[in-house]
Amino acid sequence: MFRRHVEEFRTGGQVKRRKAAKKAKERKADNMPKRNKKNFRPTKQGAGMTEAGVAAYRRKNPGSKLQTAVTGKVKKGSKDAKRRKSFCARSAGQMKKFPKAAKDPNSRLRQARRRWKC
Question: Contact at 8 Å (CB) between 48 and 112?
């Protein structure tokens, strides 16, 4: 009897966790802007969000610090230069983790790195 009680307790806990995860997923989906040409850039143009997309995201998520890609010239040591360096380091890790994408010059990863000038 004790085992059955423990088993019911375990499965009940799993169900609650699944429901909570599902609700969290639904909340996250609602806070993203629509995936269209206005908000998101196609892969061939470097992937990522456009300025309008970032603005739409920030309207839906007050307090967000999301920014667009650093694409222009930047002074050495500036905030933008540091953001670029950080992104390039993170995406270099993705290149190692996903060698298939790293080899394909038209992958979203490679296009984004090109846009960020990595």
Answer: yes
How far is the CA of 58 from the CAs of 23, 67, 71, 79, 86, in angstroms?
21, 9, 20, 20, 22
In order of 32, 38, 60, the CA distances from 56 in angstroms are: 8, 10, 6
What is the domain count for the chain?
3
- How far is 40 from 54, CA to CA, in rounded Å? 9
The verdict on pTM exceeding 0.85 is no
Residues of the chain with pLDDT under 70: 1-16, 23-29
Range of the domain at 38: 33-68
